[in-house]
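Please describe the entry underneath.
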Amino acid sequence: MKKKKFSISKMIVNILLIIGIVAVSFPFVWMILSSVKSTADFYSFSFWPKSLDLSGYKYVFEKTDFTRWYFNSFIVAIVVTISNIIFCSLIGYTLAKFRFTGAKLIFLIILSTMMIPTEMLIIPWYVFSSDFQWVDTYWGLIFPGLMEAFGIFLMRQFMLSVPEDILDAARIDGMGEFKIWLRIAMPQVKPAISALAIITFLGNWNAYLWPVIVTNTAAMRTLPVGIAMYGTSDAGGIQWNTIMAMSSLTVIPMIIVFLIFQRQIVEGIALSGTKG
């Protein structure tokens, strides 16, 4: 039985990984522990709570609109994610598998929109929403993210790798283009769909700038907006243990999504880097 050789480089890598894990996980652990402290205990600045205090969680569910904000964020994130998967993959499939006049120009125009900062689009979006009376509505929250240029780019790059022979065989068998996209092409690009889904869901779950502008009432706020407003004007002061309780509850869907789709997420992100 061969003895494993001691490697200084591996030891350094392991130490750096441990330091990275501690640095990344420390704020998360501190947030969880702070959420089960009383207000007085929080301001004692001790790392561990002196006693388990769930008053922050009780206050969140009884005295705030947290469940409504949670529902709003969930609706916005789910609808936008599904929309991006459908429309971005359809456009990506069309640009990758069909040759028509102006296809490259259309793709370049779509790519060029990725260079425009979101802040520059806020005023046109708001004017558009105001004209169509979408301010303070779900549609107003959702419509800017229904199709993302990055999603189209990602799906087109993956669709290019789908073998033409398989698609031609399906056409010879009489299958329509929509069924070919749905039943032949989409299963071939599952890693890309997973990456697009998680990136879109996370982006919209954590979105703050557009939701804070397009919403006027507490009932239409999303989680980031609701928590921010609660921490300032609504609560009449900053109650950090309650804010930590809200933040802890906010990350639960992210953890569930990551645990369920961990392998697909890693594969998708890794492959999206090589396909670009």
